[in-house]
Write a structure and sequence with these properties.
- There is one protein chain.
- Helix 3 packs across helix 4 and helix 4 crosses helix 5.
- The radius of gyration is 25 Å and the shape is elongated.
- By secondary structure, the protein is α/β, with parallel strands linked by helices.
- Helix content is about 35%, strand content about 30%.
- The protein contains 11 helices and 14 strands.
């Protein structure tokens, strides 16, 4: 669906985006993470065609954006962080105006506006002036204008910014529903949003792509934590002999407790390794207090990538 090669954007001597490359498939929800100034908004503006890159290429749906901007933008919906809306206009009128700007044929505008209102659950507020809406409802209006014309690509910049928990949950469900028919790129500084709804995460640091990985792969682990008593001196020997164990660290937790951190080989099966660890504990005559995988969450990975202190 999207192929980005060596994308670069400079402002004078400042390089905001530095040779960023990635590919995104159809119907993926991809989170774009990074500190303020990392380059998230600049990338989204270049993907939308609002901003020209200093170097590099963007291909969307097999078409190069640089030479096919009008065709690509017809298949694209964009929600900027600060959506320019007309507060005195009614919701339905504003969406009809947005449909006109998008070039939707006059005979199809009413149908498209109605579909967008239904999809974003704005039916009871369609005749309300935009100025009377809450922040959450205004965000829904922004999403509604973005999905006019049934775009194949949705670019959403901080869609849950400023929303309360109930509004945030509604927006999450809406984005997941929209991803059934479109690829979604979601820029945010809230890691919980990415963890909750995204398939992949791209982490930017100082304008460069520091990490590109699937969310489910972050939940896979090659490390196990074992806590036992300190009575069985032979347990360490048994654990080191396990074929699944690539590395072992032993720590004294005090109060007659010992903690082991076991690093497994890449091809080791976690369930088999857990069973073997339990058997080693039994064989050594030790007491088993805890045995669990160590899962590194997105927040920890983000801190590691950015060298942030916990």
């Amino acid at each position: 669906m999207i192929e980005v090669q060596a994308l670069t954007r400079c402002y004078g001597r400042t390089t905001a985006v530095d040779k960023v490359s990635f590919q995104i498939g159809g119907n993926e929800i991809v989170g774009l993470l990074g500190h303020n100034g990392a380059g998230k908004t600049t990338i989204m503006r270049m993907l939308s065609g609002f901003l020209e890159p200093s170097a590099g290429t963007i291909t969307i749906g097999g078409l190069k954006l640089a030479t096919n901007a009008a065709s690509v933008q017809r298949e694209l919906g964009y929600l900027p962080e600060s959506l320019p809306v007309y507060p005195e206009m009614m919701v339905a009128d504003y969406l009809h105006y947005a449909a006109t700007l998008k070039g939707i044929a006059p005979g199809k505008r009413y149908q498209e506006v109605r579909r967008a209102i239904v999809a974003t659950d704005l039916g009871t507020r369609a005749l309300d002036p935009v100025a009377t809406l809450s922040r959450g409802l205004k965000q829904r209006v922004g999403v509604a204008q973005a999905i006019l014309g049934r775009p194949r690509l949705l670019i959403l910049d901080e869609p849950t910014n400023g929303l309360d928990p109930q509004q945030t949950e509604h927006m999450r469900r809406l984005i997941q529903k929209l991803a059934r028919q479109a690829t979604v790129i979601l820029s945010t500084h809230i890691m919980q949003e990415v963890d909750a709804i995204c398939d992949r995460v791209l982490v930017l640091r100082d304008g460069k792509l520091a990490l590109d990985t699937r969310i489910d792969s972050l939940r896979q682990t090659r490390t196990m934590l074992l806590r036992t008593d300190t009575a069985a001196q032979s347990l360490t020997t048994y654990l080191r002999r396990m074929p699944q164990v690539a590395g072992l660290q032993q720590h004294d937790d005090g109060e007659n407790r010992t903690r082991y951190t076991l690093t497994l080989h890449d091809n080791a099966d976690m369930d088999t390794a857990a069973n073997n660890v339990a058997q080693c504990v039994i064989k050594a005559g030790a007491r088993l207090y805890q045995l669990r995988p160590v899962v590194q969450g997105l927040e920890a990975v983000f801190r590691e990538v950015n060298n942030d202190s916990p």
